[in-house]
Amino acid sequence: MNYLCFSLFIMGFSLAGHGKENVMKKTWLSRVKAYIFSSVFTASHAKGETMNLIDKIQKLKKAKKAIILAHNYQRPEIQDIADYVGDSIELSRKAMLEQEAEIIVFSAVDFMAESAAILNPAKKVLLPSLGARCPMAQMLTVDEIKRWKVHYPHAPVVLYVNTLASAKAYCDICCTSANAVEVINSLDADTILFGPDRNLAEYVAEKTGKTLIPIPEWGFCPTHLLFQPEDVTVLKMRYPDAAVMVHPECSSEMRKVADFVGSTSKMCRYARESSAKTIIVGTEEGLLHRLRKESPEKHFIVAYEGAVCPNMKLTTLDRLYASLKEEKHVIKVPEAVARKASVSLERMFAVKS
Ligand code: 13P
Ligand code: SF4
Questions:
Q1: Pocket of ligand 2, candidates 71, 134, 287: which has the most ligand atoms within 8 Å of its Cβ, to mutate?
Q2: Which residue has the CA at smallest separation from atom 8 of ligand 1?
Q3: Distance of alpha carbon 315 from alpha carbon 318, whole angstroms
Q4: pLDDT of 155-189, one tens digit each?
Q5: Which pLDDT belongs to residue 5?
Q6: In whole angstroms, how far apart are CA 103 and each of 65, 314, 329?
């Protein structure tokens, strides 16, 4: 725990020194503090208490006809109790197609729960921790999109799902890191406004040969920003045969040292199919739980241990239980916004990937 707090402190310190996107970094630093706070004060339960909590969640889930969807970055105990664990497109699809359940508990961050509420408005969608907000999603406002549209009136607007519902309502089509290349290739345009992740924009531009204008200019994920190729170089000295896989939210320097670039679930597939016995992972450390479960014979090493998404970690067993019990926090998207945003999301689902 002390090591984790120390890493987060260093991480926050290095972010504060950059100068660019200061407002976002302040938001990020407050999330880091929230994570340290939540980690310390939702201190580990004794084994018996944890089992009791798990049992209570299972019973409540059944009684209330609820399902738990969890993102690949969630804490191990949350992944283990979930009905389904996946990347953002898989979770959205699952939420969209859910028929039986009356409640969907979305153990992830705000924009993912919002997408579920948009795609399946008949269900009650709960986000266990209201503070679980993706800072990247807040980097792109509707005003910013409008500003760029003035300069590129004919360019379609493609938005990563890591955006607020209001922004989704203002774009032509959404994408995730799992289908961004296919979405861009499906468009009859060579110049495209793409946001908010600049790294993903660069990666997709490389793959498609199209011109992607990043909006805003410097949108980024504060967690993936922490991965540095030097860390991989050092690990490769010790594990020369290791394969390297990274998320496209990492920098181009990280992509250059990678054998595979893909979404969190695509990385799981790559790990299952790869002949490499040791794999260096360039994404949030939560994925390692699923990787180790699915490929127990392999050795996974996170490229940088401090790369934790504090927002994803805000969901704890206690909060999940309270969320189910009190049916909080209900995620609602204003109807007019939801109607438009669902068009952008459904267009994405229509693209073959
Ligand atoms: P995936 O869609 O790959 O799960 O990524 C979501 C995300 O937030 C990555 O930081
Ligand atoms: Fe957002 Fe990055 Fe956390 Fe993903 S890892 S939810 S992009 S802050």
A1: 134
A2: 162
A3: 8
A4: 999 999 999 999 999 999 999 999 999 999 999 99
A5: 43
A6: 6, 20, 12
Compare 60 and 48 and report the one with higher pLDDT.
60
pLDDT band at 13, cuts 50/70/90?
very low
Q: Is 264 near ligand 1, meaning CB less than 6 Å away?
A: yes
Sign of CA dihedral 258, 259, 261, 267: negative
Ligand 1 nearest-atom number relative to CA 266: 3
Q: What is the pLDDT of residue 297?
A: 98
How many other β-carbons are positioned within 10 Å of the β-carbon of residue 169?
A: 22
The one-letter amino acid at 138: Q
Question: How would DSSP label each residue in 109-162?
Answer: -HHHHHHHHHH-TTSEEE-S-TT---TTGGG--HHHHHHHHHH-TTS-EEEESS
Q: Which of 73, 74, 199 gets mutated to test ligand 1 (max ligand atoms within 8 A of its CB)?
A: 73
User: How many Å lie between the centroid of ligand 2 and the Cα of residue 311?
Assistant: 8
Percent of the chain residues topping a pLDDT of 90 = 86
> Residue 6: is its pLDDT beyond 70?
no
CA 175/CA 252 separation, integer angstroms: 20
Q: Which uninterrupted H or E stretch holds 203?
A: helix 198-208
Using the Cα atoms of residue 42, residue 48, residue 54 and residue 58 in order, give the sign of their dihedral.
negative
Instruction: Tell me how far apart the alpha carbons of residues 336 and 104 are, in angstroms, rounded to a whole number.
Output: 22
Nearest CA to ligand 1 atom 2: 88
Among 247, 201, 353, residue whose Cα is nearest residue 192:
201
- Asked if 168 contacts 137 with a C-beta cutoff of 8 angstroms, the reply is no
At 118, the pLDDT band (50, 70, 90 cuts) reads very high
Give the position of tokens 């209001």. 166
List Cβ neighbours of 51 (8 Å cut-off, separation of 6 or more).
none
For residue 69, give Cα distances in angstroms to 14, 25, 26, 103, 163: 33, 29, 29, 11, 19
pLDDT exceeds cutoff 60 at 318: yes
